[in-house]
Amino acid sequence: MTKNILAVHDISCVGRCSLTVALPILSHFGLETRVLPTALLSTHTGGFTGFTYLDLTDEMKQIMTAWQPLDLKFDGIYSGFMASAEQIDVLKTLIKTYKTKENLIIIDPVMADNGELYSVFDRNFVKKMGELVAYADVLTPNITEACLLTDTPYPTGLHDAALIETLLNKLHEKGAKTIVLTGVKTHEDQIGIAVSTKNHPNHSECYMAQEIKGAYHGTGDIFGSVLSAELLRGQSTLDAAKTAVDFVVSSILATPVSNDKRYGVEFEQVLASKKF
């Protein structure tokens, strides 16, 4: 029987990110993909101006009410961009309603990057996001988000082993079961991930790939979608993360340098070629 996954993300109508990335990737990997949109935007917010923005919190609640008589079951729930602190409570209710011993909750605490909190969020949002940590079977913060969630100063320069272990251990103390820490830079010209499980604290495993300089919108959503798909297909966390890293790198390399970076990377070419 085909497994299904519920993707809880925003819809950016133009610009490859969020649901316009998650839907094709998850479906390509053989999962029935169901959605719970958090917001509707004319474009994503990276580099575009004059975009429209519709918060769908009230609609999320109505959708969940309409689902109650359907006896739905989800093999996985994969969340990304939350439009408000209130939506985090909605997500918590969703997880409490549909969590089972068998399914997998994957939470990407989307709120910051490169040492900066996204402009649409404040410190209260960070605090609310921290409440989600214990709900995650797999938590996928980047370095900035991990620092915010653990009140750790954001580092300058490379990320040494002590910093990585500190972040992972603090997140485990907050209740995270398995962590895939992204944006890890232990060497120049390389970037990758660190994986840690609560059963084996102080023993993380890293995987590095070539760093391709530049800002590439939507690559975090590409990573999370591939990771989620591979986890539901039975891959180990480390192997799933490796596949996701390689997929992102391949997507960037498949994108012509002359492209307008605001529109994201050509992950479709990688899906078509299966070179990942």
TrEMBL record:
GO cellular component terms, semicolon-separated: cytosol
Class of the enzyme per the UniProt entry, highest EC level: transferase
CDD domains, per database record: pyridoxal_pyridoxamine_kinase
Pfam family, one: Phos_pyr_kin
A single GO BP: pyridoxal 5'-phosphate salvage
Superkingdom of the organism of origin: Bacteria
Signal sequence extent: none
Domain (Pyridoxamine kinase/Phosphomethylpyrimidine kinase): residue spans on this chain: 35-255
A single MF term (Gene Ontology): ATP binding
EC numbers: 2.7.1.35
Gene3D superfamilies on file: 3.40.1190.20
Protein name: pyridoxal kinase
Record organism: Lactococcus hircilactis
